[in-house]
Amino acid sequence: MPAIIFTTITYEMLPVGVLSPMATGLGTQVGDAGLIMTSYAVVVVLGSIPASAALARFQPKKVLLALTFTFIVSTSLLAAAPNLGVAIAARIIGGAAHGAIFTAALRVAFAVIPRSKQPLAVSVVSAGNSLALAFGVPAGSLIVGRAPWQVPFLVVAAAFFVLSIIVALTVPSRDADETAATQMGVKDALKTFANRDTLLLAATIIVITLAHYTTYTYVEPILRDMGVSEVQVGLTLMGYGLASAAGLVAFSRASARRPQVSLRVLLIAMSTVLVLIALALSSQALITAALLMWGFFFGAVPVIFQFLALTATGAVETAPALVNTSFNVGIASGSVVGGLILSSFGTGSLPWASALILALLVVAMAARTVAARRAAGPGTKANSNPRNQPVTD
Asked: Which positions ≥6 away from 211 have C-beta within 8 Å?
C-alpha cells in the first residue's frame, strides 16, 4: 500500500519540481501552469467524499485496480498534452482517482491487521507520502535536467501499470458479507462530518495546507530565480523529501499518542523556518539548510491529520476522504494565492506570506484553548473526551 500512495503523491506533486519546463513546453506562463496543480486539487475536493462512500460497497482490490488504471490514463494523456488545456483535462482525470485511493489503501491495510496495530498501519501507508516527496518529486526534477518534461510522467504511468499487476496478484479479495458490512451511502458519509469538531479539524487542515503550498508550489521557480540549476533543484528537493521522511520517523510516536500537541509544536517550527527561508533567499547554502528544516517539520503533519480524522469521524471509509478534501482545498487555494503573490510581488514574498498565515493560526489556536479552559472552569480540563476533542484545543 505505501507503494501506491508513493506513486499517487509523486504524480500529484510532480509538477512542483518541473513547473518551469512544463510551462515552456505547454506554451504558457509559470503562474498559469500552477493551474495544473489547482485543477487536480479541485477535483479531489469535489470527489473525495462521494467517491469514497460510493466505492466502499466494492471490494478494495477491485477499487484499487480501477483507480490504478485511471491513473495510467491520466499520466499518459498528460505526457502527450500539446497545450495547457489538455494537460488540465488529464490532471482532472487523475484527481478523480486520487479522491478515493487513500480510503481504499487503508481499507486493505485495516482488513489484514488487528485493531491494536491500526495506528502503525496509518503511519506505514502515510509514509508513502513522505517517501514520494523524498524521492519521487526530486527524481522527476533530476530527469528533466537531462530529458523532456514528459519523461517523468511516462515513468509514473509505467509505475502505475506495474502496481496494477502487483495488486491483481497479491491483494486478497474480501468475502461478499465482509464487503457488505462496510457499505456506506453518501448521506451516511456526510453525517460523519456533521459536527463542530470535525468541521473545525477540516478548517485547520485547509489553513495549514494553504500556508504550506502557497510557497511549496513555487519552490522550483524560487530556486531558479536564485540561479540554481535544474540538477541542483532536484537535489535540493530530494534533500527536502529526505528530511520530511526523517521528520515522519522522528515524530511518529508522538504523533500517534499526542497528535494535537505535536501539531502545535510543528506549526510553530514551520512558521519560524519559513521566516528563515525568506531571510535566506540571497544564499543558496542557507536556503538549502532552511528547506531541509522545513521538510523535517512538515513530514509528520499529513500523518497527524489522518490520526485526528480517524478520531473525529470514527470511520475508516470517510476519515481519509476528510483529509483528502481538506488537504486539496488547501493545495488549490495555496497554488492560487501563491500564483497571485508571485505575479504581483515576486518569489521573495511567498515564504513571508506562508509564515504569516501559520503564525495567525497558531495565535488563534492558543486563544481558543484559553477560552475553552476558562469556559470549563477551574480544575476542569476542557473537552476531556478525546474522541470529540478538536484539533485546535
From this structure: 330, 334, 353, 354, 355, 357, 358, 361
